[in-house]
Structure formats: C-alpha cells, structure tokens
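Supplementary Methods, section 5.1.

A reviewer requested that the exact input to the structure prediction be made available. We therefore reproduce it here, unchanged from the version used in the analyses.
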Amino acid sequence: MLKITPFLWFDNNAEEAMNFYVSIFKNSKILHLRRFENAGPGGKGTVVNGLGNLYRIPMEYVLGKTTTQCFPAPESGILAFTAN
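The structure derived from this sequence is encoded token-by-token as follows.
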C-alpha cells in the first residue's frame, strides 16, 4: 500500500513554524529535528528538516531555502506531498 506523507516547505523559519503549529493543534508534536552543523543556507544550528505529527497526521517540515530547487515553488510555506 502506498503511504503519503505531507510536508510543509519554508523559506527560512521552519523551526518557528513547527513550534507554532504544534502549539495550536491538539495531539501534535515534534518528533525529530535535524540541524545544519557548520554550513548551510540557514547557518549553524538552523533546522534543515523535522518530523512530527500534526493532529495525529505524520508530517515532514523542510527548510526550502537552498541554492538549487528540484522544482519551482513559492517562497512561503506550501503544502505538498511525498509518496513513500
């Protein structure tokens, strides 16, 4: 069976947005954060991506501010889907 995991894409404030969504939706939590170490578009300590549950729905959060993109996307948070 195909599993679909939605993700939210952010330009430069993924961690702030994740904390906001978790604070307003019941049964939501951040499960894992991955941060830049010494290099990256967000600087040391900036969240690269995160995994969590948003109202019990598995969700991935992505810092989309990179030098290249696989596909054009608006700069603000968008809702997209990946198939696993």
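The longest strand covers residues 47-54. These observations are discussed further in the main text.
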